[in-house]
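pasting for ref. prot 1 ->
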Amino acid sequence: MAHHRSAQKRLRQTVKRTAINRSRRSRIRTYLKKVEQAVASGDPDAARTALRAAEPEIRRGVNKGVLKLNTASRRISRLTRKVNEVEAASRT
């Protein structure tokens, strides 16, 4: 347990930030799962809509410091590729 007042305050802040960051990370994962489910269902419209909703949420995670930029870019790129494959498969 922290003994100095500044250390006690820092502990309170850390607990608060941890809860906020955990919530943000969970929210991002939820959006990722929605895209994955839409891709798995094979519905290109649902997949595109889910991707459009997920991308800003992932980018917001970068701005808030929950994700690194390259990680977010990689995830968006992979999701986009999957959605494009679903769209291509539905056209043929």
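and prot 2 ->
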Amino acid sequence: MLREHARDKVPGSDICEKHGIAVTNFYAWQKLFADNGPAAFICNDKRRKDATDVKDQPIADLQAKLQRNHEVLSELMEEHVQLKKARGEL
């Protein structure tokens, strides 16, 4: 509808009547597109990647935290075994 209005120079009121929408909605959509139009032309792959990055970040953070926990636990277990050996318990 917006393209028809811009390219074919069809009055907004005619388009609204043809499609059964309120004129105020049409012009609100036109403003929204004018304000955010460039985002509509961003490659879908980039949008998808950005959305995936946002979702994957908490997972990556948790995985890094889990890795640190495993490292600390391994060090503690190693020290425990060494102490037991030193005391002759193993």
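The chain has four helices and no strands.
Residues 34 and 87 are 77 Å apart (CA to CA).
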